[in-house]
């Protein structure tokens, strides 16, 4: 009898532990190419570019995975994995992302890989967590497409640093306006034939006049920042160097007491020729990235990262924590509870096509 009572107690105790303590959260699975998924992904790309302080803007190439979780008491959380590609627009360039060209494979493309959580509430998307990294295409893959194309070179290579210094000196020598200082070396390639070095770099105007500079160390960046982006090729010919450099200056940016993250006060413009700079009015709907990256870029290191050939996206989000983690909500990321698919009444219902979604440009 005692054994029976003990068995019943154990059964009740087991039932208490196994019973669910609350409603089980389920996610709904969307098609990676669903318009709603693409809206979330575009919000993610905008967020990524608004946080970049160095290098080039990225654009969406492919949506790898998507899960949509309910968020209490309102809204939903989109859990996304996306692939991006580097464009030819520098982060300081106010050109809208839609007008930026994707860096091609023959130019040694760079791919980004990002995991994000995006809150959708009242029809608006906002990123609550972001983790990214990026890497150039492999040398083997580049050689398959173009055997003679140059690869990315380390940004701190002595030949690269020399090429940038020579190009910037040539640019300032030809300028009738401000003396420009180097902000960053953005990209470099060593070309075997003809022996030359291709570089791309960002510059900023100072309070010195280019024709009158005697000590560049005494020149200070302007309060109203004006940035530019340069491309140059230094070619070796018969023991001498031939310097070819072209720069594009962007409209000056007014002094902003404190950078805003919502992009409501963003200032941008189309680019103007270098010499002399043209006066350009800002567009009616400027890109939000201009305000975020412009005033902040002066705080970045001018020296190229050691032996790196590009600016890794992972450094744009180091230390970024999830906003949802402080909300008191219970999300068990990584687990896979029963899937709630929209419009599915039972096993015979329609099946959402699997991810990943379409490739917009090319696979790296």
Give a quick rundown of the structure.
Alpha-2-HS glycoprotein derives from this precursor, when the connecting peptide is cleaved off. The two chains A and B are held together by a single disulfide bond. This protein is of the alpha+beta class and 364 residues long.
Mean pLDDT: 79
Helix/strand/pairing class, anyone?
alpha+beta
What is the domain total for the residues?
2
Question: Total number of helical segments?
Answer: 5
Our Rg estimate from Cα atoms comes to: 26 Å
**Count of DSSP E strands?**
9
Distance between the first and last residues' Cα:
71 Å
What is the name of the CATH architecture of the largest domain?
Roll
Helical amount: 10-25%
Coarse shape: elongated
Which stretches are low in confidence, meaning pLDDT under 50 for 5 or more residues running?
18-22, 261-302, 321-348
**Helix and strand run:** HHEEEEHHEEEEEH
Q: Kindly estimate the percentage of residues that lie in beta strands according to DSSP.
A: 25-35%
The main β sheet shows up as: 5 strands, antiparallel
Q: Record the strand order, biggest sheet.
A: 5-6-7-8-9
- Name of the level-1 CATH class of the largest domain: Alpha Beta
CATH topology of the largest domain: Nuclear Transport Factor 2, Chain: A
């Amino acid at each position: 009898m005692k054994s029976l009572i003990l068995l019943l107690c154990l059964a009740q105790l087991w039932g208490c532990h196994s019973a669910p303590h609350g409603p089980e959260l389920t996610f709904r699975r969307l098609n990676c190419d669903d318009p709603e998924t693409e809206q979330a992904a575009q919000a993610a790309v905008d967020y990524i570019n608004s946080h970049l302080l160095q290098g080039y803007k990225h654009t969406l190439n492919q949506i790898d995975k998507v899960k949509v979780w309910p968020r209490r008491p309102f809204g939903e959380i989109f859990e996304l994995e996306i692939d991006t590609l580097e464009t030819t627009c520098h982060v300081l360039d106010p050109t809208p992302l839609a007008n930026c060209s994707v860096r091609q494979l023959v130019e040694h493309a760079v791919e980004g890989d990002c995991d994000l959580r995006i809150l959708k509430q009242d029809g608006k998307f906002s990123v609550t967590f972001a983790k990214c990294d990026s890497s150039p295409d492999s040398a083997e893959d580049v050689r398959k497409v173009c055997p003679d194309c140059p690869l990315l070179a380390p940004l701190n290579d002595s030949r690269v640093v020399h090429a940038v210094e020579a190009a910037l000196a040539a640019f300032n020598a030809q300028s009738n306006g401000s003396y420009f200082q180097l902000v960053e070396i953005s990209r470099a390639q060593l070309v075997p034939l003809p022996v030359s070095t291709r570089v791309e770099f960002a510059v900023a105007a100072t309070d010195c006049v280019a024709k009158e500079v005697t000590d560049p160390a005494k020149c200070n960046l302007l309060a109203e920042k004006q940035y530019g982006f340069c491309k140059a090729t230094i070619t070796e010919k018969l023991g001498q160097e031939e310097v070819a450099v072209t720069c594009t200056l962007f409209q000056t940016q007014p002094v902003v007491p404190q950078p805003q993250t919502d992009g409501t006060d963003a200032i941008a413009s189309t680019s103007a020729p270098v010499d002399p700079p043209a006066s350009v009015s800002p567009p009616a709907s400027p890109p939000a990235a201009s305000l975020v990256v412009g005033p902040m870029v002066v705080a970045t290191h001018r020296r190229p990262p050691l032996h790196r050939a590009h600016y890794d996206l992972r450094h744009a989000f180091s230390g970024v924590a999830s906003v949802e983690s402080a909300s008191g909500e219970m999300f068990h990321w990584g687990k896979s509870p029963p899937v709630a698919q929209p419009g599915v009444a039972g096993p015979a219902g329609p099946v959402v096509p699997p991810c990943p979604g379409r490739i917009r440009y090319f696979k790296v």
